[in-house]
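Quick log. Single chain, no ligands specified.
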Amino acid sequence: MTRTSLSRCSRLVAVLAVCSLLLAAAAPVAAVSVERTDVPDEGEVGSQVTATATLTELYDTYETWQLAGSTDLENVTWTVTFRNQAGDQIRQESYDGREFSGATVDIEEGTAEVRVRVTGTVPAVESYSYDPQQSFGLFALRQTREGGSAEELANVTAGHYTSDSDEAREALDSARATLDAAGNPTEAEESFDSAVSAYEAGNFDNAVTLAQRAETEANEAQSDRQRNRLLLYGAGGLVALGVVGGGVALFLRGRGDDYDKLG
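-> predicted structure:
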């Protein structure tokens, strides 16, 4: 190999080495693992709910850091429990309010798992939405460092409703299923869209009425199609019978002519 070729190879190796270092530096660091346990999908406004999250793989980034959390729940209590590798409790901290911070996670303390439990009252609905359903922030957790940036670990939402809005949603869900089964007839779709608009405006009685109308229209449209299909089948059957009957008549007539000739 010539000196020029060796020089080019050396430069290529150097470039590849630099690229590898840059890629390694740019690669994302593995985050803390968060397992959601006992997390409700939804809750009625004014009711009390509890959600729990378990944090493991705590030291992929830092050996010491702080945990912070926030929620849209009201009358909130946070309970943060620190456990060692054997599952024994090291310590437990409690916080009140929608936000907490400063819960220190330290490898020297032997913490291998952090369990966060938040309990509070489901907040009122500010704006209703059918699809997707209106929701609130159940809890969010962040990893923070003093003087450094914060990294989001979890952001969990849940649906919330009142008894009236829940009744309207059930009527809308029932109508939606019926419309889909009926092939989404135009008139029924228009009534359904009006029902959704009423729901999102908070007019739940009107939403129920319109949803039921949409369901009735869908059922009627489906019945009409089935009746027309039966009529079509019936007409086809009559035509077939006519053809068969005509064939039989011609056959019998031919047999009659044969007998006349024999006679």
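The two ends are 116 Å apart (CA to CA).
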